[in-house]
Amino acid sequence: VMAWSVLYLSNSFSSSLPWADDAKGFFFGNILNISDGIGQLGGINIPILVALLMVWITIFLCVRNGVKSVGKVVAITMPLPLILLVVLFFRAITLEGALLGIMAYITPNFSALLDTEIWLAAASQIFFTLSLGFGIMIAYGSYNKEESNVVSNSLWTAFANSAISLFAGFVVFGILGYMAQTTGVAVQDVVASGPGLAFVVFPQALSLMPYAAVFSVFFFLMILSLGIDSAFSLVEAVNAVIHDKWKNVSKQKIASITCSVAFLFGILFTTRAGLYYLDVFDHFVTNFGLVI
Hints:
Blueprint: H1 2-11, H2 23-31, H3 46-63, H4 67-77, H5 79-93, H6 98-106, H7 116-129, H8 136-141, H9 150-183, H10 187-190, H11 195-207, H12 212-245, H13 251-266, H14 274-290
Helix pairs in contact: 1-3, 1-12, 2-11, 3-12, 3-13, 4-12, 5-9, 5-12, 6-9, 7-14, 9-11, 12-13
């Protein structure tokens, strides 16, 4: 997903956004060059492979010295997406039709509470976004001082995370409301889930806005920085365990091996059938493995 974001970010600097006329065709055709099914690997997509390599080199540079280098990176990558999100929020609420989208976002549908798939999706999402079940919080918690108030830290983490998520919803649905108004369809008809929202619907909506290229750069830079934050947290959790076991091995060596292995596993997802495999892995690992 970060590799896709790199490609979209690079395309955002063009004079006219290349997905403006057909966002769906651009994503599935130009970016993914997707095959007809999961049984057809169709070879490796070289631009995605190169972008993936760039991403993993960046992650390695973030974690190579353990929590010391991670701390310096977080000082940039944590506030950056928040700043970009605030900028996009003020742009979203000033768009015509934004209120339509926001009302669709905040109007509850209580019948959905009877849907078990909603509960499973909600549980897996909040576990994932709070980094539960990955060892991340255990690894980061181990760096705290013994007198740290773990309960207070946990409450603040959970509150801040959910508050930012809810705030992001206003940005997303404000822009979707604008898209619905511009294209003359209902908000529900432009909403999508999974990669379709971030790489089809949202780029299409951004292309309709004034200064589309500028806000596209903001959006994909935000997605990329959030992704790198998540990725190096996962890697640091693995590195911390290995380093605790074999203290004589340098952190840089551990980081290089972990990132290299992860990159090699990621090559499967750079094939033309990569999106199909991503759906399968995400469904079973996140929706079931993580919740269990």
